[in-house]
Amino acid sequence: MGRRGLLFLICLLLLTGCHDGYWQHQQSVSALSADTVHPGCETVEEDVSLPDTITMSFVGDVMLSSEYYAGTYMTFNPFAKTVEPRYFFEKMLSVFSADDWTVANCENVFTDQIQEMAEKNYTPAYWYASGTENAGILPAGSVEVVSLANNHALDFGWSGFNDTEAALQAAGVIPVGEKKSVVLEKHGVRVALFCCSMYSANHLPAILDWLGNAVEHTDYQIVYFHGGTERIHEPEEWKISACRALVDAGADLVLGNHPHVLQPYEAYNGGEIVYSLGNFLFGGSRSCENATIVFRLVIEAKEGRIVGTSSEILPCFCYGEWWQPYMMEDGEEKQAVLDFMYGRRESPVE
């Protein structure tokens, strides 16, 4: 073979190699390293842009009232008249104002009318209400969504419930009632939040029915439920099984409240569960267990598609000053809460 023939053959081999390498790159949708890219081939750059983020903060029971008719010194209702609405959540604003939505369980009625207390067939029984002006505490603290799916929403019947819903809406807060849901949308991602009671496994069918529809029409599904035995740190077996069944049915995140104390976190079958978020800002008492959390969720998205999620538990105190939750700093108390939430100890408090 002459010199011209040899040069022709070398060029032909180089061109063939470049063609094969280019299509291999296109099929794998990943950038080839500099060592494997043939000279003269056009390379397609990998998308290295940062994803969009959606951040949500979840807390447990928030009661912005005293027990009904409890007007004695330093109960919540008269105290609230002595401070600005911002006071109650001001030490949490660095967290709540930095997210897209903060979600809480609102366990009291807001009404300016004299209401008749609803009959209750159990003891001890309590009724909680405050004036509608206390609804303004929530937006002042950057709390945007509240569940009304709890055992105090109907303390004063449907009249009290309707007043509560109207007061929240007037304050710019989204109320979500029993077995109701809201879809929160940002960056093209649809997050479905379902609020409900779950006092036994008998409540599962209605939640599962909602999940069956939600997984078809939204991108991320959250069940935020009210139920379980009060004042215990270990969830009951039925509640563990029920929460896991919700994850198995498609729920990405299951969060409980009502026990008034914390119960542990569990990663299960690709989903996440917190069996109880505990009290957060509880106006009905000044002596509840002084340990709680914010559960923070971050969803990462690109072009309307979820590409990743992460979560974080932020330990907090319920009280420093009266009814003013705040973040725990590094130390033994914070570590005790984290160890409890991740199953390394039996109680979140010493």
What's the topology here?
Elements: H1 3-28, E1 52-63, E2 66-67, H2 76-80, H3 93-96, E3 101-106, E4 109-110, E5 128-130, H4 137-140, E6 145-147, H5 157-170, E7 174-176, E8 180-186, E9 189-197, H6 204-217, E10 220-226, H7 237-248, E11 253-257, E12 262-268, E13 271-277, E14 279-282, E15 292-302, E16 305-317, E17 326-327, H8 332-341
Parallel strand pairs: 1-3, 1-14, 3-6, 4-5, 6-7, 9-10, 10-11, 11-13
Antiparallel strand pairs: 1-15, 2-5, 8-9, 12-13, 15-16, 16-17
Give the terminus-to-terminus CA distance. 88 Å
Radius of gyration, Cα only, in angstroms? 27 Å
From the spread of the alpha carbons, the general shape counts as: globular
Q: Residue share in helices?
A: 25-40%
Low-confidence stretches: 1-44
Oligomer: single chain
DSSP summary: helix tally: 8
- Overall SS class: alpha/beta
What does the average pLDDT come to? 88
Query: Mind describing the biggest β-sheet?
Result: 8 strands, mixed
State which percent range the strand residues make up: 25-35%
| N-to-C SSE string, H for helix and E for strand | HEEHHEEEHEHEEEHEHEEEEEEEH
Total beta strand runs: 17
Question: Would you write up a description of this structure?
Answer:
This protein has 350 residues and is an alpha/beta fold. The chain is 25% helix and 29% strand. It has eight helices and 17 strands. It has helices at residues 3-28, 76-80, 93-96, 137-140, 157-170, 204-217, 237-248, 332-341; strands at residues 52-63, 66-67, 101-106, 109-110, 128-130, 145-147, 174-176, 180-186, 189-197, 220-226, 253-257, 262-268, 271-277, 279-282, 292-302, 305-317, 326-327. The strands form three sheets. Strands 1, 3, 6, 7, 14, 15, 16 and 17 form an eight-stranded mixed beta sheet that branches. It has a six-stranded mixed beta sheet with strand order 8-9-10-11-13-12, covered by helices on one side. A hairpin with a 2-residue loop joins β12 and β13 (271-277). The chain is globular. The termini are far apart. Mean pLDDT is 88; it is low at 1-44.
